[in-house]
Hints:
- The protein is mainly alpha-helical.
- Helix content is about 65%, strand content about 0%.
- It has helices at about 10-25, 25-45, 65-100, 105-115.
- The longest helix is centred in the middle third of the chain and has 39 residues, at about 65-100.
- The radius of gyration is 22 Å and the shape is elongated.
Amino acid sequence: MLVTGWDLKPQGIQGVLKTTGETAGKIETYAKAYGEHLTSAATSAGTITAEGGGEGGEKAGGGLVALALSQYAEHATSDLKFIAARAGKSLTGAVDATTAYLNGDLEMAAESQRKALGVPDLDLTKPGVQTK
Length: 132
C-alpha cells in the first residue's frame, strides 16, 4: 500500500517522540510503585477469612482481601506489560516510518506504520524483541 499525501515535519515529530518517550519511560517506575502499594495494602489488610477471625492491621500473609488484591495485581500486571509494549512498539514504528519517509521510501514508511499497529507479543519465553 503506497501512502501518498504525507507531509511530515521532522522537527515536530522529534519533539513529540521525545516527550512521548520520556512519559513512556516512567511506566516502569509507576508500575514498581504500584506493586509496592498493592503489597503494602495486602499486608495491612489483615487476615479476615471466610471462617472469620483475624485482626485488621496484622502483619500476616493471608486473608480474603490480600487474596483479592493478589488476583487483581496478577490481572493488572499483564495490562501494564501490554501498555508498555504497545508504547514501545508505537514509538519504534513512528521512528521507522519517519526515517523511511525522510529517505524517500513511502512504501517502507507505510509498512513501518502498519507493523506498529499490530498487537505486541508479550510471550516472555521468546528471545529477543517481540513483534508480530
